[in-house]
Design a protein that fits this description.
Radius of gyration: 19 Å
Shape: elongated
Number of helices: 7
Structural class: alpha+beta
Helix content: 10-25%
Distance between the termini: 14 Å
Largest sheet: 9 strands, mixed
Length: 231
């Protein structure tokens, strides 16, 4: 069992973030639980890379002096699995918003799907989704989007080292991606649909790895809290 001193000196906690939770909520929940368990007023707790509420999987959470390593962990390669749905798009590129356009998928073959992944391997230019937390002129992009305001977004260079379609069931494509910091899988879904001359959006996302940290070694917030000392 981890002691108060060990949490203050610095721990790296591997948490499997539940669906609908924000990364901020996960950090707050753990910070509150640690404070309660040891009756302490303050302790530093932060995460190394945001996951959207509709994504699950690995969240690396640092406590105490290990929070100084957050930027190092954030810069490491990440791996994701999930599902793209062909033939329709949404403004947020995922299921946060409703479908706004539909497209034909009759021309898409399994061969074309697998061949198209090649276009996205290596260094690519990518536009972040309008529904994202990136700041422009002091405001988050999603604030502009929700207000219906148009805003110019610049592309950024990201690197995809691995991209494979692991199964195809009708218009649902299961995938695995290994990529650099700053890569938006929602944008990859959107751009992949475009490359197929059809729309696509992300319907499911799970982060499975950050650097050498794997989700198989992670625990849910509930299990972490259960393992803390009780008063």
């Amino acid at each position: 069992m981890t002691t108060e001193e060990e949490f203050k000196n610095g721990q790296v906690l591997l948490i499997d973030k539940p669906l609908t939770w924000t990364s901020f909520q996960a950090v707050n929940k753990l910070r509150w639980a640690i404070r309660q368990a040891f009756s302490i007023k303050k302790i530093k707790v932060g995460h190394a890379g945001t996951l959207d509420p509709l994504a699950t999987g690995l969240l690396v959470i640092c406590t105490g002096k290990m929070t100084k390593q957050i930027n190092t962990f954030q810069g490491q390669e990440k791996e994701y699995t999930g599902t793209f749905v062909l033939g329709s798009t949404t403004p947020s590129f995922d299921l946060e918003t409703e479908i706004d356009e539909t497209f034909s998928t009759e021309h898409i073959s399994e061969e074309l799907i697998h061949k198209t992944t090649d276009q996205f391997i290596g260094k690519i230019e990518q536009f972040p989704p309008l529904f994202s937390a990136i700041k422009k002129d002091g405001k988050r992009l999603y604030e502009f989007a929700r207000a219906g305001e148009k805003v110019e977004i610049k592309s950024r260079q990201v690197e995809i080292t691995e991209f494979e379609i692991t199964s195809i069931k009708g218009v649902e494509l299961r995938f695995r991606v290994a990529c650099s910091k700053g890569t938006y899988i929602r944008s990859l879904a959107h751009d992949f649909g475009k490359a197929l001359n059809s729309g696509a959006h992300l319907s499911e996302l799970r982060r499975t790895r950050i650097g050498d940290f794997k989700v198989e070694s992670a625990m849910t917030p509930e299990v972490f809290i259960e393992n803390l000392p009780s008063k």
